[in-house]
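Batch job 17 of 40 flagged for manual review because the log was empty.
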Amino acid sequence: MLDFIRQTYVIRTITVCTFLYATYLFFAPIDPSSEGLFPHFDKFAHFVVFGALTTLGCFSYSRQLTDKTKTHLKFNLTMVIVFFAIYGASIECLQGSFFDREASMADWLADMLGTLTSLFLLFKTRLACLLFWVAAR
């Protein structure tokens, strides 16, 4: 029933659209007088968004990440971490330089924690079956 979701183009389209929308949200103007749902809500949002982007990115390239015979698995995971580290750092630099937003090292740390948590859940828990399900298309 959900086999169409496992198609590469569907997953990659969803990933690209989510990536573009998240990038827009990171640069969208915010009202400084507005409060989040709880203190440090911004950090929680960065954690969740980067966790979701990492998960979708891993689903998009699940075949490369689930083939245990490849010697490049550690390299691929390292590249995922490096990509999201650079993406998160560039967002923070651009927010502080060109937009009326504040650059924060804590936001970048929340980004990286979301990425690492997603990778841990996808590769070290029973949620790994989702990655293999997507890869088995």
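Reviewer: the log was empty due to a logging misconfiguration, but the result itself is present. The two ends are 13 Å apart (CA to CA). Unflagging and moving on to job 18.
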